[in-house]
Design goal:
Length: 202
């Protein structure tokens, strides 16, 4: 025979046991153990990918971006100074005795445009009263070689140190293409580098 009641089902034995445990846990203060845990917030798949990409971009470009704030403004590069071109030229003769306009006196002295020049970075053997035959011969070779070099094309005259010596001669370094003609005479064994004093050639 069907029994009609209020419409509520009677709790099963399992439910009664569960309710009894909850009541007991409440009295003991451990209700949270029996409550259903809340779902924690987690990243979705696409959000996780975006976060990883952002981290990689910051790690790769971040230091360079920060350095831009500390780096001074880039200044335009200065153009290199134009290289001076040799512009002096003359047809040099030989003037062992007396002065001249454009001529070579010895291995380290010459006249140019009416002014007497002494090559300041070398010393050559004397041809005016050499101390020995070997010095005279080497001095003659140096004189002829200097004449050939002076006639070999345009050159420049550069001041290094004093502009004149005690004899009133203009002190200059003779260069061609930025290279010292005096150094060429030294390399060929016809001159010595000038160190401030003369040394014997004999």
């Amino acid at each position: 025979m069907a029994i009609f009641g209020t419409g509520r089902q009677r709790p099963s034995n399992r439910d009664r046991v569960q309710q009894a445990w909850i009541a007991e846990a409440r009295r003991a203060g451990n209700v949270a153990r029996f409550q259903r845990p809340r779902k924690s917030a987690v990243f979705s798949g696409s959000a996780l990918i975006y976060t990883l990409c952002l981290g990689l971009l910051l790690g790769w470009y971040g230091p360079d971006w920060m350095a831009r704030f500390d780096r001074p403004a880039m200044l335009p590069r200065s153009q290199p100074a134009p290289v001076a071109t040799d512009s002096l030229y003359a047809d040099f003769g030989y003037c062992h005795n007396g002065g001249g306009t454009n001529c070579v006196v010895d291995g380290d002295t010459f006249w140019f445009r009416g002014e007497k020049y002494r090559i300041s970075d070398i010393d050559t053997p004397e041809t005016h009263g050499p101390r020995c035959t070997a010095e005279g011969e080497l001095g003659t070779r140096a004189t002829r070689r200097l004449q050939a070099l002076m006639n070999d094309g345009p050159f420049s005259l550069e001041v290094e140190g004093r502009a004149t010596d005690r004899y009133g001669r203009a002190l200059r370094v003779v260069t061609r293409g930025g290279q010292s003609i005096g150094e060429q005479l030294v390399a060929e064994g016809l001159a010595r580098r000038w160190d401030g004093s003369r040394h014997p050639w004999c």
